[in-house]
UniProtKB/TrEMBL annotation:
CDD domains: rubredoxin, rubredoxin_SM. Residues 43-63 have a biased composition (Basic and acidic residues). This is Rubredoxin. The keyword Transport applies. The lineage of its organism: Bacteria, Bacillati, Bacillota, Clostridia, Lachnospirales.
Length: 220
């Protein structure tokens, strides 16, 4: 049996490793991206895609003026930040700088959240994974928007990893970060916990020098 990391695609082959995946300790992590054991899934055999029926097509989603007005400053900041990273990935530095300036502007207009804690954040991440990304993926498929599809793939992997890291931190506390550093990919936002950043980002495949170290963590 083979198990695949849903973040970086690393394959754990039981026949090669001589140890059933189920017997790995719960604290075992992906050797490439440090994803938790829970983020591995059994390898599925690829099947030929079936022609889509008219009833299977997702409902069209349109964004009118009323809906656009409901987008918060935080959402606009995240949108501009993602666009900046996308431009950087395409080596469009001038556009990346402009989107980053917009992201900083909207970030400054985000109101403070009085009760921001790990439980609240985990709830929001779970909502994104359960409802947000499937909705975005359906809209991108309907419009054949390849750019949005790529952002969706990257974003879902990054969100899954962040969700996994928060669960581990919730269980272990500061011991989880003992003698470790936190690194963030400046292109896709992937978070890596370790002494040094990975040689290549497991999500967007940019080189390790694109990672930045998170400085100044406040003690618990």
């Amino acid at each position: 049996m083979r198990y695949v990391c849903s973040i970086c695609g690393y394959v754990y082959d039981e026949a090669r490793e001589k140890l059933p995946f189920s017997q790995l300790p719960e604290g075992w992590q992906c050797p490439v991206c440090k994803a938790a054991k829970s983020l591995f899934t059994p390898e599925q055999k690829e099947e030929a895609p079936k022609p889509a029926k008219e009833s299977d097509k997702p409902e069209k989603i349109s964004l009118g003026e009323e809906e656009a007005e409901k987008i918060s400053a935080g959402e606009l900041a995240a949108l501009c930040s993602n666009l900046a990273r996308g431009c950087e990935k395409q080596y469009k530095n001038q556009e990346a700088v402009l989107f980053r300036q917009l992201a900083d502007y909207f970030t400054g207009r985000v109101p403070k959240v009085p009760e921001a804690d790990i439980t609240t954040l985990l709830g929001l991440l779970s909502e994104d994974l359960k409802d947000g990304y499937p909705l975005l993926r359906s809209a991108a498929d309907e419009c054949s928007d390849r750019g949005t599809k790529r952002i969706c793939v990257w974003g879902e992997k990054v969100t899954n990893m962040l969700n996994s890291l928060l669960i581990q931190y919730q269980k272990e506390g500061e011991a989880f970060l003992s003698d470790k550093e936190i690194w963030v990919c400046t292109v896709c936002g992937f978070i890596y916990v370790g002494e040094q950043p990975p040689e290549i980002c497991p999500v967007c495949k940019v080189p390790g020098w694109k990672f930045e170290k998170v400085e100044g963590r406040d003690p618990a």
